[in-house]
């Protein structure tokens, strides 16, 4: 029989599994049972919606069979089964999880991280198995197949006769070692407790023969061993339970059973609505950013059930993009089983549910912000950027909904603050909400442009995310206060006296400024004396809608259309360098050129913009020094 090789990626993952020292090896059972449950979901749905199929509730179950003698653990399901092609693609490649793309080599070698954070589905069985055999037959297919692998050198597939549809996975346990006792996975008690811990809410019965001491029927005093098939899990879906009966651990284990993430959920909501539309829902805010969140691979959506039957694994229409990080399930008795993807989008019930969910998630986040700041900041750290995209997207259609969820770092508080906190603190004479943009808080802290605003005692919000300024431009104002960049050309914060003095100076140095503008040509829109600079010699400001920070972001876009900010070079006439410029203007024209170029390049560097010609700049600097 031909032996096939695993795909390279899968091979690496398998090696990791075989040699795993991960301490929670028991999770392999959760993974296999979840797969079995998914497979039953698929056939259950078909049975309910296909008139040709007979439906019998008792046909859908998972069975666990430990065999002490042969040291095997079998997990059987009556699910949809797999065809030959499905065996190849599903078990021969590390199909969808993509965890490996993300992880770097160092972490790969260790493996702990991957298993812990992502789980690895079917492959995790190789943490405890020397050999795994899968017998399966797919629904509506005559032939069954046997798949087998030791997890090391490929796998085999051969056709078999198999009467029933469904899958049987036989795990040949590894030999016990000094540190590891694999026999525990054959003990009834141990298996029962693992299943209770991880798979209690699986909605199909997980059955196993359990042997117990029971009093004899005719003689209550004497006990005998009785072996009976028992259902080990509770089966009532968690969302149908009363909130009061459930603990945080219950919600956490459901999160893991459903593989919404392999982190702990940061927070959950349990919703039961009985109004225009009836539905129950459990929603989670994950703690960590999924590794592919900002890639095209990420699919948002909630699991959708119609009265307990899974009809869609990821229903995107239930979540707006700005809350795409939310995971969870929705079950509604008002939805038809036969609802198709196309109809779903126009379905009134679905729209109502989605509106309701959006509102609930928003209120939940607001209450976290109010009552558990630390948790909210953790959330914001992971997903705040998505909220800001949300403000910007769709021409600001959702901006009002989202504005109170935003946080920005504050110059005066030295921590994240909300817009309402900022506005509450504003002194009476302050007209605008000020912000400054840059790569990091430290860099912004030292920006020359912030000097005047800080001197006035005004708080500045620091924008370090590319999307920040775009979002804020879309927002335009908060609580009737407009936003203003500290680098904008028209700060207009000076008192009358300073303004008059500036006018006078401008007139006096008109020729010098004109000459400098001519030297720089169309690199800048204007050269002027600065009223905002206190100790720094130069800075760049921007006139008009496009800021320098926005220019940087736009430049990185594929279709940037060369949009540039209207840059203005501002010179501090109270700085010594200005006197040097004035002297040069009178005595040495070449020096004016030299100084102007250097100052302009300095201003570019301060802004984090590339200098046009580094060689020319260093040559100019040497000329000054020599
Ligand atoms: N018992 C089963 N019956 C039918 N198909 C199965 C069964 N077990 C696994 N599969 C198929 O194999 C695929 C791969 O399973 P695996 O556990 O490796 O990953 P997954 O469940 O797709 O992803 P993840 O673990 O990241 O959620 C499943 O998606 C499913 O199509």
Automatic annotation (TrEMBL):
InterPro entries: HATPase_C_sf, HATPase_dom, Heat_shock_protein_90_CS, HSP90_C, Hsp90_fam, Hsp90_N, Ribosomal_Su5_D2-typ_SF. Homodimer. Its main location: cytoplasm. CDD domains: HATPase_Hsp90-like (cd16927). SUPFAM superfamilies: ATPase domain of HSP90 chaperone/DNA topoisomerase II/histidine kinase, HSP90 C-terminal domain, Ribosomal protein S5 domain 2-like. Keywords: ATP-binding, Chaperone, Coiled coil, Cytoplasm, Nucleotide-binding, Stress response. Molecular chaperone. Has ATPase activity. Residues 553-626 are annotated as: C. This is Chaperone protein HtpG. It is found in: Cytoplasm. Residues 1-341 are annotated as: A. It comes from the Bacteria. Residues 24-177 form the Histidine kinase/HSP90-like ATPase domain. GO terms for cellular component: cytoplasm. ATP binds at residues 31, 35, 77, 82, 90, 96-98, 117-122, 167, 341. Pfam families: HATPase_c_3 (PF13589), HSP90 (PF00183).
